[in-house]
Amino acid sequence: MPVDGPRDIYALVRGERRLDAGKDGVVDIVAERGDAFKVFPALCRDCAAMDYCDGLDPKYVLLHGLSGITPFAEMPGSPPLINARRAYLPAFVLKRAPLADMRAAIAGLSKRVTGRVARS
Ligand code: SF4
């Protein structure tokens, strides 16, 4: 994301509507980016991170549901790299070989940085 925010086409647009994916089901959303390129289901309505979140792929929601999604009650820091993003170490690890063991790399780096093993 550019420092001055997302391009207009990917700006967060709030508004409730139902996405109909035919036989695959429906997704009720409260906001979207890029003409439903990424969406925010009703679960996201009160999430403190919505302004900084990319949103969810509607196909992901249809395939996997929302059981793994947890809204943030508060979101300290300043955009675009709010504190939660800075603290998420796996996002800063680069893969330099096709078969690199990224889980091991993240675990090793996390242990060196924090003394604990990060979740990945
Ligand atoms: S962080 Fe999770 S709950 Fe919050 S807006 Fe993004 S997808 Fe929704």
Based on the model shown, name its key terms.
single chain, 120 residues, alpha+beta, 2 domains, three-stranded antiparallel sheet, 3 helices, globular, binds iron/sulfur cluster
Description:
The protein folds into 2 domains: 68 residues, no CATH class; 33 residues, no CATH class. Strand 2 and strand 3 form a beta hairpin. The protein has 3 helices and 3 strands. With 120 residues, the chain is an alpha+beta fold. The model has no long low-confidence stretch (mean pLDDT 88). Helices cover 21% and strands 18% of the residues. The chain is globular. The structure holds iron/sulfur cluster. The site of iron/sulfur cluster has 10 residues, from loops.
